[in-house]
Amino acid sequence: MTDDLNQFIKAKALGIPTLHPDEKRAFLGNFRDRVAMAVTIRQLHDPRVMALLDQVLSRYPGYRITLNGRMMPQMIEAYMKQALAHDYPFTIMAQPGVRIKRDAHADDFGWVLAHPTDKITRPILL
Questions:
Q1: Residue range 19-114, CATH number
Q2: What's the pLDDT tens digit per position in 13-35?
């Protein structure tokens, strides 16, 4: 009984424990072993990246795109339209429940392609 009570108090005070929280925060809610491709915000500013991502999306169906919700709205809109054009499922991850509150940096990931359930055997590299 006291163990249950202690676990309840810890869960309410500290939040529900999660596996690899820093890894999931870096990869926008995805585990590293499920990520096929991750692109930083700095790389997304390069106009050639959009064409490269079009090629990647046409060859890898069954994956899911996660966009960083802290990017500029124009960038989110552009990559959201790209996902819709390829009929890809996507998520905009704003991470409101995360205790770390800071603006997005150029080296943060802005676009992540991950499989929802399986480990990736061959990651895509830029």
A1: 3.30.1330.30
A2: 776 666 666 666 677 778 777 88
CB 65 within 8 A of CB 111: yes
- Sequence ranges of the domains in the chain: 19-114
Query: How far is it, in rounded angstroms, from Cα 2 to Cα 106?
Result: 47
Closest CA to 24 of 105, 100, 84, 124: 100
The closest alpha carbon to 89, from 59, 124, 121, 115, belongs to 115
Q: Where does residue 49 rank: exposed (0-12), middle (13-18), buried (19+ CB within 10 A)?
A: middle
Q: 42 Cβ partners below 8 Å, 6+ apart? A: 106, 107
Say yes or no to pLDDT of 105 above 80. no
Query: Rounded to a whole number, what is the distance in angstroms from the first to the last CA of the chain?
Result: 53
Please give the model's pTM, rounded to 2 decimal places.
Answer: 0.75
Judged against a pLDDT cut of 80, whether residue 109 lies above it is answered with yes
For 52, residues 6+ apart whose C-beta sits below 8 A from its C-beta are: 126
